[in-house]
Each structure stands twice: as structure tokens, then as C-alpha cells.
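Troubleshooting entry. The earlier prediction with flavin-adenine dinucleotide gave an output that would not parse, so I re-checked the input for stray whitespace and re-submitted. Clean input:
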Amino acid sequence: MAGSRTIFVAGAGIGGLTVSLALAARGFRVVILEKSERLEEIGAGLQLSPNASRVLVALGLQPRLAGRAVTPEAISLMSVRSGGEVARLQLGEVAARSAGAPYWVVHRADLQAALHAEVNEHHDIELRLGCQFEDVASHAKGLTVVHRSGMTRQQDLALALIGADGIWSAVRHHLFPHVQPQFSGLIAWRGTLDATQLPREYASRGVQLWMGPNAHLVAYPISGARQINIVAMVPGTWNRPGWSAPGDGNELRNTFASPRWPGPARMMVAAVDGWRKFALFTVPDGGQWTQGAIALLGDSAHAMLPFAAQGAGMAIEDAAVLARCLAEVQNEGGPAMAAALQRYARERRPRVARV
Ligand SMILES: Cc1cc2nc3c(=O)[nH]c(=O)nc-3n(C[C@H](O)[C@H](O)[C@H](O)COP(=O)(O)OP(=O)(O)OC[C@H]3O[C@@H](n4cnc5c(N)ncnc54)[C@H](O)[C@@H]3O)c2cc1C
């Protein structure tokens, strides 16, 4: 399946799967190239505020996420001094009605599985697992996209290429090799707990945010509230790429051992068995996102720190805007396609920079 209306997407992460569904809903055929052999259960929780969940609801994902995504009752800012709540942003069903879409907390693997299942059922989307984007060339007929599966290198014609291949994007490297992810000096540690392991008040259906001396702790329910996702952000120098390096729990427990951290926060950190860690990188603001009929989307364009909990949300918003811009030109190639992608970037850049 390749030809005049076919758009290639590099990466079957949250952004790549969403943009594929959004493009197919606008009448395009889509081929997704994903370098992993399987969409694995790596990663932990993601927060999706209504600006992002609205896009997923419009794409028909809500039934697939029912029973997995949790709508938290509130976001609570917790005092490190007293251990109690100092500020509260009410969420829940009432807030969802007024925003027109829910606030969701969800395991990344559950969201990816829901998007994957939707993609599999779509006749106009082909997902090629174990297939890595390698190269692209522009010419009068559009693009030639080169990809590799094992030892086999192949190429296809495409109307456009979307680089949704994450922070270490090969598509971005091909277009703008001078743009390099920058290490932030922060490391995110994540782990999950069975909700039954915590006293009820700390296993509630809310997001808890603790900001303390030299660290930052976030806890919220995932997997239908059966599990609690815990993330601790701490400064450090360890800066290897990747999403799931094993972490030594003692190192983290020492960070939280200070009596300045209250009992409940220390209890949550102590209760996690298998910590994983990832170094936090960003893609510097100000680089280009498009070149001709090629565009970047999500982390490949604008990987950000997680403090606003908008990394996945911005990739999902990008997907909706990009599909709308391309729908305006449908199967016109060349200059019209390039202009549509520039419109996408012009619309998204100020929004992403503000977030
Ligand atoms: C395995 C994994 C686990 C993660 N876990 C967390 C987490 O626990 N917490 C958190 O906040 N964020 C996590 N993230 C990042 C988070 O998903 C993103 O910040 C956000 O969702 C934006 O997504 P994205 O689609 O732009 O990029 P990503 O979700 O990173 O997806 C990029 C996809 O592109 C694929 N890819 C890369 N290079 C190529 C290539 N050359 N050819 C084809 N495919 C390619 C990757 O395998 C991946 O599937 C994780 C990302 C990954 C890939």
C-alpha cells in the first residue's frame, strides 16, 4: 500500500498512532513504521487533560479506555512540612462536564494498546512492526521513504512523512542534524504499587503532588485504580537515553530519608519494589519542524520536561492539527503539501512554547 494518497508515519508511540488515526479519519491512507518488534509494556503513567482527551474521544477511543483510564477526583498539592493538603484543583465528573472532556490518568501501555487496537481495525492504516525509518528523499513525485526490517532495506513512494519517532528522532536527525536533545540535570524514577498496599487516604482516586527539598513526588491511580503510579524527580548526573533503566531503590530512599519529607511521602517511596528510571532530556525550543513534505510531531519536535504533564497531550494535539491542515490539501502533492505542513507548525509552535 503506497502511492499518491499515502502518508508515512515514523513511530508508533502515542503521537504516531494518534496522527495515523486522525489522518485516516480524514481520508488518507497511512503506513506506520515502528522499529520495535512489539509495542511493549514499557513506561508507566501519563496524565491527559481535556485538551488531549477531547481528541481521543473524537477518534472513538473512549470505549477502549473504559476500565483502564481513571478520572481523578482532584489534583492535590501536598505540604511537605505538614503532610497535609494545601491546595486542591477539583476534577472528576463535574469538571469533565464543564471542560467537555475528561481528565484521565492512564498507564502508557494501556493508552498505546487502545490506539493500537483501533489502528488494527482501520482498513486504511498499515502498521509495520520491526521496521525502522532510515532515509527519505524528495523529488517531483513526492517522497521516497527508505526503511529497514532486519537485513532487508526497502523503499516506498509517499505524499508526506511525519516524524513521530520520539526524542531521539531519526527523521529530525535527517532534516536538522544540528538539533540535539539536551540533558536537564534531572532524573525521573517511576514505580507502581498495588492500591491495596497504601492506607486508603493515600490510595485515593486523586493526583497528589509533593514538592520538597531537592525533589518532587507525584502519585496517581492507573489501570482502573488497581495500581498507584509513583514518579519522583530528582537532580543527578546519570544521563543515558532510554525509558526503563533499573534503578536502585536504596539510592532513592536515601533522597527521601530526610526528616524534612513527611511520613506519607516516605511511605510511598519505601513501598515500591521495582524502580525504573529515565534521564529527562528536552529538545530545545526554536528549531524548525518541517522541510518540504516532511514534518516532526510530538517529542521529536518539542520534547519537554514533565512538570506540566503535557508531553503526551502536546503530541495528541499536534496530531489533530496536522490532520486538519493536511485535509485542506488532500492529495495535492509538492508545494501544497509543504504549505499545509508549514501551517501546522505555525499554529502549533506558539501553543507548545506557552505550555
Ligand atoms: C517505550 C517508551 C516508554 C515511555 N515511558 C514513559 C513514561 O513512563 N512516562 C512518561 O512521561 N513518558 C514516557 N515515554 C515518553 C512519552 O510517551 C512521550 O513523551 C509522549 O507520549 C510523546 O510521544 P511521542 O509519540 O512523540 O514519542 P514516543 O512515545 O517516544 O514514541 C516514539 C516511537 O517511535 C519509535 N521509533 C524511534 N525511532 C524510530 C525509527 N527510526 N523508525 C521507526 N520507529 C522509531 C519508538 O520505538 C517509539 O515507539 C515513553 C516513551 C517510550 C517510547
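This one parsed fine. The chain has a mean pLDDT of 92.
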